[in-house]
Amino acid sequence: MNVKMRNYLLVYINGERVEVRGEEVFLDLATFLRRKRALTGTKVVCAEGDCGACTVLAGRYQEAHSSGLTSLHFEAINSCIAFLHNLDLSHIITVEGLADHGKLHPAQESFVKNHAAQCGYCTPGFVCSIVGMVDALKGEGHRSISMKNVQSYLTGNLCRCTGHAPILQAASELNISKITRISERYHDPNILAEFAHHATVPAEITAGDKVLSLPVELRDALQLKGQYPDIRVIAGATDLGVLVNKDRYQPKRLLSLQNVLEQYKVQDRHEDKNEYFEIGTRVTINRIEKIIGKSFPEFSKLLHLFASHQIKNMATLVGNLANASPVGDTIPFLLVAEAEVELASVRGRRLMNVNEFFLDYKKLNMAQDELITGIRLARPRDKKEQYRLYKVSGRKDLDIATVTFAARFTIEDGVFENFSLALGGVAPTVVRQNAIEKFMAQKPWQPDTFIQASDMLPALIHPISDVRGSHEYRLLLCQNLLLKMGDVRPKWGCA
Questions:
Q1: What percent of the chain has pLDDT over 90?
Q2: 48, 123, 196, 254, 425 from 237: Cα distances, Å
C-alpha cells in the first residue's frame, strides 16, 4: 500500500466543499443530505430505488476522467440506495441547488405553469430527473425534447397522486436550447483539480467495527482481497443499498474499486484477428447501452428496459454478473455470447468463459483471493449472427424478471447453422439449453422446428414457484418465448 493515506471522502454539494468522515461515510446519500446537511428537499419513500422521490444529480470525477471530459457530467441517481462511500470525488446537486441566483430552473417554472405538483412529495425527484434529461439530451446534441424522451427519462419516478399528465406536459414543453446545462453552471476547474489530486491518494476509513478501503491501484486492491478474503467488494451497489436499507445485511469491511480509474474503461481491442470489448468493473449499464449498441443492438434494447436511468447510472455490468441472480437481466446474453470473465489475484490473472462461472445459486467459480477485473465481449465475427433477447416481468419497466431468454444464431438459406439458448428464472442459475441447441442445428426456420423445440422444454427445465410466478407459468413462458421467436402462435396464455 502507498504510505500516504486519507481518512475522509471528498464531495461537493451544490458548490460547497464537504469532507465526510467516520460513521457518516457509511450512510446512504439521502440520509446524509437530510439529517446531516438539512437539505430536506430530497425525499425518501420506498428506500429501494423504485419511486424516484430521492433523485439527485451526481457529477463523478472518475466518469469524466475515463471519458476524456474536461467537465463533470451530471446524471440522475437514486440517493436512497447510493452510499456516500460510493460517491467519493463527486459533485452532488440537489433540488435546492437548481435555482440560479434566486431564479427557478426552467423545469421548476414549467411545473408551476402546468400545475404539475399535487401533494409535492415526489416533485423534487421529478424535477431533478427532468434536469438530468435536459443535460443528457443537450450533451448528445438534441435541440428539442420528444414525449418519448420524457417517458424514458421519467421511468424511475412515480407520482402516487396520479398526476403524471401535467408532469409529462411540463417536461415536454421545455425549450432546451435556452437552458444552461448544470454541467456548465457548476463547472469549476479548481474542483476538478482538487478531485484529480485526491484521485491519486488512497483512503481507508474506520468507524467502530466498519472499515472502508478505497485503493487507487489495482495491485493494492488485490492485496486487500488476499489479506481479507471475505471483504465485500462494491460495484454500483444498487442491490446492496436495498439490502442495507431493509436491515437484511450490514457489511463490516468494504472494498471499493471506484478510485481505480482503469476500471472505468471500455476498450475496443484487436488481437490476432479477434475483436472484442474489454469492459471494466466500474462501467455503468447506461454507458454500455450507448457504447456497444451498434455491435449488439438487441442487447442495447434489452438494457433500455434494464431499469430506470437513475439505476442504470449507478449499476454496472460486472455487478449484475457477480450478483449471480438466476433472473439477472444481462446474464443470459453473456452466456450465449460466450463472454469471458477476467479474474485477478496477487498470484496472477486468468480468463474464464462465463458459462463456467456459475456453480450454484449465488456461488461463483473463483478463488477467495480473486477479484473480477472485467468482462471480455467478442464482437460478432459473422454478419449473419443474430440475437433474440426477451424479458418477461410484471411490469415492462423497472421490475425484476420472471423469466429471461437469450438466443444467438446464424441462418444460411433458411437453415440454422448454429443455435445457442440460455434461460433465466428456471433453475438456481441461468442455464444453457444444450439439448435444444443440438436439436436446432441444421434445422429449417419453420413453425414445426420451433414447436418441436418448445415441446422439449418440460423434460429439460424445472422452475420453482414463487411470488413472481408458478412452476407452470414459468414453463409456459419459456415455451411461448421459443414460439414467439419463430412467429408461431403461442400455447394457452401469451408471452
A1: 86
A2: 11, 25, 24, 11, 22
Cα 418–Cα 420–Cα 437 angle in degrees, nearest 5: 75
Which residues lie closer than 8 Å to 442 by C-beta, 6 or more apart? 415, 416, 417
Residue 494, pLDDT score = 45
Domain match, 54 and 180 both:
yes
Q: Which residues neighbour 269 within 8 Å (Cβ) at sequence distance 6 or greater?
A: 275, 276, 277, 278, 376
Domain total of the chain: 3
CB count in 10 Å sphere of residue 173: 13
The rounded distance, in Å, linking the Cα atoms of 63 and 314 is 11
Indicate whether 493 pLDDT > 80.
no
Q: Which of 62-76, 214-228, 412-426 has the lowest mean pLDDT?
A: 62-76
If asked whether residues 236 and 275 sit together in one domain, one would say no
pLDDT at 249 over 50: yes
User: Is the pLDDT reported for residue 195 higher than 60?
Assistant: yes
Has residue 442 got a pLDDT over 90? yes
- pLDDT category at 3 given cuts 50, 70, 90 is low
Among 259, 279, 296, the domain boundary falls at: 259
Residue 382: its pLDDT value, please? 81
Q: Does residue 221 form part of some domain?
A: yes
Shortest CA distance to 371 belongs to which of 391, 341, 396, 395?
A: 341
* Whether 124 and 238 share a structural domain: no
**Amino acid identity at 322:** A
Give the domain extent around 416: 265-485
Confidence (pLDDT) at 1: 45
Whether 47 and 66 share a structural domain: yes
Whether 42 shows a pLDDT value over 80: the answer reads: yes
Nearest to 45 by CA among 145, 130, 122: 122
Whether residues 401 and 459 share a domain: the answer is yes
- Rounded to whole angstroms, the Cα distance separating 286 from 459 reads 38
Q: Is residue 128 part of a domain?
A: yes
Q: pLDDT tens digits, residue range 80-138?
A: 999 999 999 999 999 999 999 999 999 999 999 999 999 999 999 999 999 999 999 99
Confidence of residue 492 (pLDDT cuts 50, 70, 90): low
Which candidate, 55, 57, 40, 28, places its Cα nearest to that of 125? 55
* Inter-residue contact 113 to 104 (CB < 8 Å): no
